[in-house]
Amino acid sequence: MLAKRFIPKEKPLTARQLEFARQFIIDNNATQAAIRSGYSKKTARAIAAENLTKANVIKFIEVLKEDLRKQLNLDAAYIAQELRDIAEYNIQDFLLPGNRVRDITTLSRRLTKAITAIKSKETFLPGGITEVVTELKFSDRKGAWEQLGKHLGFYEKDNMQKATPNTELTDDQFQRLLTEARASVKK
Questions:
Q1: β-pairing, 115-125 with 129-138?
Q2: N or C: which end of the chain has fewer CB within 10 A?
Q3: DSSP for 145-166?
Q4: pLDDT digit string (tens) for 158-186?
């Protein structure tokens, strides 16, 4: 595993910082990662913010994420294609004449990615007739398009989605901001 090889020489991570990085990649929630790493709930938010400004912590998080991508055999193109498949479904692909639902087992895997739930209800009618009503629930197409746009960086210029830690701060500025953040947590 690549993550085991990364221990910065200039400033080694503490055991809690290592655990914080491991916890952070679970859900990208820094405050919860700090709590799960053993920091107190009272100071978790400030500590999380502080950890995410440290170059060695950020580098280790990136190494862990790269390990995860390799383990899952994921790359940007794969994710983009999955989102596109979900976003491009057409309801007509799932229907037969008379608005009857096609047999799902005959549909391609690409099409069925858009389906999130199937609900069938049988009704027994007089004369031994059985009526089957099948409902399909689909992924949110608009949401898939939005995720794809974010993934491809279409919105970065407008809302700075990929903000990087401010490396322009002096030590005094950083300490002042950290003190303010800690004070706001204590209130």
A1: antiparallel
A2: C
A3: HHHHHHHTTTTHHHH-TTPPP-
A4: 555 455 555 566 667 666 766 766 666 55
**What is the CB-side half-sphere exposure of residue 116 using CA atoms within 13 A?**
6
pLDDT at 12 over 90: no
Residue 5, SS3 per DSSP: helix
Please report, for residues 18, 40, 50, the alpha-carbon distance to residue 14 in angstroms, rounded to integers and kept in the order given. Answer: 6, 16, 14
187 neighbors 43 (Cβ within 8 angstroms): no
Burial of 44 (0-12, 13-18, 19+ CB in 10 A): buried
pLDDT value at residue 8 = 47
Does this model's pTM top 0.85?
A: no
Q: How far apart are the two ends of the chain, measured CA to CA in Å?
A: 42
pLDDT of residue 17: 93
Q: What are phi and psi of 25, to 5 degrees?
A: -75, -10
* 121 three-state secondary structure: strand
